[in-house]
Amino acid sequence: MAARTSPSTSVTRNLATWIEEVNPSSIPAEIQTRAKYLILDGLGCALLGSRLPWSVKAHDAITAIEGTGNCTVIGWNKTLPPTSAALLNSTFLQAFDLDDYHIEAPIHASSVILPAVLAAAEQQTHTTGLPIGGADFLTAMIAGYETGPRVGLALGGSHMLTIGWHSGAIFGPAASAAAVSKLLHLSTDHIEDALGMACTQACGLMSAQFESMVKRMQHGFAARSGVLATYLAREGFTGIKEIFDREYGGFLGMYSLGAEKEPRFVKEEVSKDLGEVWQTERIREKPYPLMAGTHCTVDCVRVLQKEHPERMRDWKGIVRIEAEMARAAYKKGGWRPERPATVTAAQMCVPYAVALQVLDGEIVPGQFAPAKLNREEIWEIIGKVECREVDEFDHSWAQRVKVVFEDGEVLETTVLAPRGVKPALSNEEILEKWRAVTRGVIAEERQREIEAVVLHLEDVDDVVGKLAGLLAPETVNVLED
Known about the structure:
Blueprint: H1 11-21, H2 29-49, H3 53-65, E1 71-73, E2 78-80, H4 82-93, E3 101-102, H5 109-128, H6 134-154, H7 159-162, H8 167-183, H9 188-199, H10 218-234, H11 251-255, E4 283-284, H12 295-307, H13 309-313, E5 318-325, H14 327-333, H15 343-348, H16 350-360, H17 370-373, H18 376-382, E6 385-389, E7 399-405, E8 410-415, H19 427-438, H20 444-455, H21 463-471
Parallel strand pairs: 5-6
Antiparallel strand pairs: 1-2, 3-4, 5-7, 7-8
Helix pairs in contact: 1-9, 2-4, 2-6, 2-19, 2-20, 3-4, 4-5, 4-10, 5-6, 5-8, 5-10, 6-8, 8-9, 8-10, 9-10, 12-16, 16-18, 20-21
């Protein structure tokens, strides 16, 4: 067996040690505050997503093969074992692509971490009879928020999308294991085991974006993997040691095999600046229910609509819409959809996003209702959209849109980063989004009670007792025709 790396140079060991040692007093107040708003946004996305058609299918399939357990299924008044609850609640959270993402290492952080920590908290409270306090819950969430992006940065961040991996599903198992390990107060040795067992389960193919419902579930596979790995580690089941340091069969070496860059990975990113630079600050909330790579294109169109309202309303006079973007955005979203579009494909696709914004002047959930999804006008505009990759935008969020009209007039604009990235949504805007997303999905009284618990989480003595009962009752599918 190959010799192990010394503790001082093992990035895996350094990460595991930090996870064990991090505590509320070592986390800046503004990071804790931001994390609470991330949690609130995640819960809003899960409540909205819990009764969407694909979520119902996932619920019916999983509850048919899993027995009841101790962990809440959000919006269904049911319970499942912790691994199944984490999988299903993550599927709900990712169900409408409105959830958060890290701007440099693409992972829908809350969709992986929040369902895992919720499930582990409920299981632990049921098993021990002891409540879990809000401060412990929040610290566990932050441990996950800090871990997932670092693993992603070690693999080149968005480059994983370029080569075809569903990046968040690859980075996510470690984030889930880190968060649950922290919640359960595991030792450094057991955390290292949990990370190794979580990472060996990682997978997610980006071809899931074209028509499948499974795209909604792949972050859930990561959430489930972390929960399972952590409970195995707690019982002394040995995992892969030094999972981020191993040369033969190691996580970074294997998942970077298809990389189109050198070096293929940078393992030091896994534990770089822990406790000094906070990756939680780089997690962003979405203003649009679309894949993040489409947002800058939408904002370019919005700029042109604001500056040239009459001209842009004449969309029938448009002969061509050119959208230029970085390689990762082009590979992920620059493809032409096939008719009829599924909701998944529509939300992942730049031409479809452009068509919605040009036609309706906005991007809101109701546009993806079945009766509106394949409108003739949308397909007419899609046929005018041409996407291309440009080198000048590589490693940036910048995009350019050029609109060419029949009479030869050309409108053009460049946006360096979309709203939600620069500037990030403020905490107040996240609160507004939460209320808008859950309006009609749950009653206003329930909405405000959840707000009060989450935004004062550090003062809550029993998270499960306060929160589970608010998340369990049935929700309403507001996207039905």
